[in-house]
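Following up on my earlier thread - several people asked me to post the actual chain instead of describing it. Fair enough. Here it is, all 321 residues.
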Amino acid sequence: MDATMVRELVKSLKYIQSEIQNQKPAHIPDAQAQRLAAAITHLGPCKKIHPAVFGSYYQFVMAATEGTPTDAFVDVMFSASQWPCDFTIRNLDIESLRDPRVLDIYLACLNTDPTITLPFLRPDPAAAERTRDLIREALDLMETAIPHLAQEFYGLVHEIVLASSATGEGEMRFDGASSYMLWGALFLNADETKSVLEMLETLIHESSHSLLFGMCTEEALVNNDDEATFQSPLRPDPRPMDGIYHATYVSARMHYAIAEAIRSPVLDTAQREEAGTLLRSSYRAFSDGYRLVAEHGELTATGERLMQEAHKYMSQSPYRI
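Reply from S.P.:
Thanks for posting it. Predicted structure:
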């Protein structure tokens, strides 16, 4: 899937490059066009690339379309095209993200819903270190108990970014976040207190969103109008069908991960009891979401296939309410 995402990105960049050569827009001078061409050359043979490349690409396209300056995004795209893409856990701060412009790009890519603004803040260093240790423990459990999911996870996620959330009364908080504009990255709230199994669920939750993003290179999951919202059983605020679809499908993936982990001998008695509680919760979330998707979702062929596969699996689960 990584190779597909890179191939589609390079294809789009080459098209943009040809349009720049033909139209010669004043807000994209020759120096930027040459730097863009150099980035394309670096990206061409790559199988996976840094999330900042994807983020700067999307911000570049939006800025170019609006006729606003694009130089920062081209510069970041060129630099990030040469950065290593080994799995890492970073903090959401300028020092950890290599380039101060990457922080701005990440924040812009995360806050794409005009109805909701989530403050993603620099994490407390001590909280970030505790969360980093917990993530490693959850990944160790995944590698031991569910090695095929671990292999998939590392194929989808190259970078975990730890952040903090607003703590004021009435302010929205986040647990985890991902964006189709930041392929390979997921964001976790370092302030949240979790067990190892809960962190395992969180990692599968966010990586499953990425999996769905990767499944949509040819067509969307739903054809519902983005402006139409429904009272989601999974969140307190009304959500568009695409969001409800994602949350429903992701619930099945969380259920699968914990069900596979509970089959492993590595869980102790307390963890097995906790796993049963988590399985019943994800089963309930899937069932509630599936009813809404089945009633109101206008699914594409891809969306229908994926959801029915999830429904078939969940219908066999012994962990019912």
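The first helix runs from residue 2 to 23. That should answer part of your original question.
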